[in-house]
Request: fold
Amino acid sequence: MKRSFTLYTSCLLLAASLGFASCDKAPKGDKAKITDEQQAAEATGQTFLVDTADSRVRFIGHGVGKNHPGTFHLASGEVAVANNQITGGTFLININSLDVEQKEEMFQTKLKPHLLSGDFFDAAKFGTATFEITKVAPYEASSKDTSLVEGANFTVSGNFTLKGVTKNISFPARIDLDDNGLKAKADFEIDRRQWQMNYGNDKTLGDKFISETVNIELDLKAKKPNDVTAGR
Reply:
């Protein structure tokens, strides 16, 4: 009991001195499958527009004993649905909308500009990222592959273009769909090096090492065009 209390106190003191939760563990998500670019799906049927005000893309980068979460806004997005099945869709992410969740000055004046620089997202040159659906299929869990997303019911595949590099990624998601729109949630991990984002990924850096694994959380809502317009 005494040992646990001492460890907990040490964590709190260290976190306070560094300005972030140094005792945080790396976040866990489903491991996305990454392959080469594939043919985009032909979007047919009813088109739903993404509610950009009520959707988000959250990421967590992490290093030795520290996590750095942030979010991006979607500039636009649409999903096509036919016979109660998603047939296609495209999403445009505004890289310059990056918001670092840690509000202390050092994160806002140092970390955020660094993330937007050429070492990471290179926002001045690549102001947007895109995701274009190539396939949506029923998710089948197994003893070796069980999604961390509660109620995951589909596997979503799409071409993700970031910094001018396009790779196809596949991940489990929970998608709730009805006549009025859809809601989608996912929580997965990607290897940032696949998109030429290699800064800090050298274990000889010691406590300055930054993992190649980035956690991505998607929370998307799409509605009929009139419903989205009326909500703004």
Notes: Confidence is low (pLDDT under 50) at residues 1-23. Residues 131 and 160 are 5 Å apart (CA to CA). The two ends are 53 Å apart (CA to CA).
